[in-house]
Write a structure and sequence with these properties.
alpha/beta, Glucose Oxidase, domain 1, 9-stranded mixed β-sheet, 12 helices, about 20% strand, elongated
Length: about 300
C-alpha cells in the first residue's frame, strides 16, 4: 500500500511538472534534441557554445558558414530578405527562441494564467526577454505578421540590450524604428516595420524548436545575422565553422599577397595548391604569426596539424 501511495505521488508530481513545462521543453528533451552537442549547457539544457567561439564568429562570412553547413548535410539553416535597422551591424550569439501563433482566446487565457502562477510578469511578449542572458540573441517566429505583429518597440529593445548586450531576429515586425536606432550596438533583423501595436498574437512556445522562414532553429544555435541574411548554426558545428573560416581567411590573404608579389600565377593560386605552395604557406604563417587577422593560438594549432 505504501509503495502504491508513493507511486501515485510520483505520478502526480510528474504530471504537475509536465504542466509547468508544457510551454517550454524539459532539460531532458533539450538534451535529446541537441544530442550532438557535448559541451557546457545552460541550466535548462540549452547548449552553451564557448564565448571564445562566439566572439571569433563575428569574423565569419555568411558564405563560409553556408559552405560548411552544406558539406555537413545541413541545407535549411539560412533565411534572407530582412529589414535590419543597421546593415553594417552584425548580430552574433546564442539563440533563445520564442514561437508566436495567431491568437486563440481559450489557449491564450490558459497560457497567461499559468504564466502568472509561475511568476511571469507583464505581457507575454516580454517573457522571453526576462529569460535572456549575456550573449543571447532573441529569435522569434511571429509567422511573418507585419501589421499588429510588432513584437518590440524601443522600450523592450532597451530591455533586451541591457540583458543580452545583443540584438534580435524576428520573423515578424517591430515598431519605434527611430528609438531602436538610438540604442548603440543594438540591431534588429525583422521582416518589416509598422507603427501598430502587437495584437491577436499569442506566445505558444519558449525555448523550443522553431521555423524561421526556410530555416529550422533550435535553442542554443549560433546566430550570424549580416547584410546578406541570417544563418543558424547547430551548436555542435560552431567550432568547425569558425576554424574553417579562419583557414580560408589565411589562405586567401596568403594567395593575394603572393599574387601581388608576382611569385605565383592566378592559375596556380586558384587551383589545388602544389606541395611547394603549401610549404611556402606554412613558412609564411610562421613568419607572420603576430600580424595575421586570426588569433595566434589558432595559427599555432593549425601549424601543428600541417605536415609541410
Amino acid at each position: 500500500m505504501k509503495a502504491q501511495r508513493t507511486a501515485l505521488i510520483l505520478i502526480i508530481f510528474l504530471m504537475a511538472g509536465a504542466t509547468v513545462l508544457a510551454q517550454t521543453i524539459s532539460r531532458e528533451e533539450m538534451i535529446f534534441l541537441t544530442a550532438k552537442w557535448e559541451g557546457e549547457r545552460f541550466p535548462d539544457g540549452r547548449p552553451k557554445v564557448p564565448d571564445d567561439i562566439v566572439e571569433r564568429m563575428h569574423h565569419v562570412t555568411i558564405e563560409e558558414v553556408w559552405g560548411v553547413l552544406r558539406n555537413e548535410g545541413f541545407h535549411n539553416q539560412f533565411e534572407g530578405n530582412w529589414q535590419p535597422i543597421h546593415e553594417e551591424v552584425a548580430v552574433v550569439g546564442r539563440a533563445l527562441t520564442a514561437q508566436y501563433m495567431p491568437n486563440r482566446p481559450d489557449v491564450a487565457d490558459q497560457i497567461k494564467q499559468r504564466g502568472e502562477k509561475e511568476g511571469r510578469i507583464g505581457n507575454t511578449n516580454s517573457w522571453p526577454i526576462d529569460m535572456l542572458s549575456k550573449g543571447d540573441v532573441y529569435v522569434a517566429d511571429g509567422f511573418g505578421k507585419i501589421v499588429d505583429g510588432t513584437l518590440i518597440g524601443d522600450n523592450l529593445g532597451n530591455s533586451i540590450f541591457a540583458k543580452s548586450g545583443n540584438g534580435v531576429v524576428f520573423n515578424a515586425s517591430s515598431r519605434d524604428l527611430e528609438g531602436l536606432a538610438e540604442i548603440e550596438g543594438f540591431n534588429a533583423f525583422v521582416k518589416g516595420w509598422h507603427p501598430s501595436f502587437l495584437q491577436e498574437v499569442m506566445l505558444s512556445g519558449l525555448n523550443v524548436p522553431i521555423r524561421m522562414g526556410a530555416a529550422t532553429v533550435l535553442p542554443g544555435d549560433i546566430v550570424v545575422a549580416k547584410r546578406e541574411g541570417v544563418v543558424f548554426i547547430p551548436a555542435h558545428l560552431a567550432e568547425k565553422v569558425v576554424v574553417t573560416s579562419e583557414v580560408i581567411r589565411l589562405r586567401d590573404l596568403f594567395g593575394i599577397t603572393r599574387l601581388k608579389e608576382g611569385k605565383y600565377t592566378p592559375g596556380q593560386i586558384d587551383s589545388k595548391w602544389s606541395a611547394e605552395i603549401e610549404k611556402d604557406f606554412s613558412k609564411w604563417l610562421k613568419d607572420h604569426i603576430d600580424d595575421l587577422p586570426v588569433p595566434k593560438a589558432q595559427i599555432q594549432e593549425l601549424l601543428k596539424k600541417r605536415t609541410w
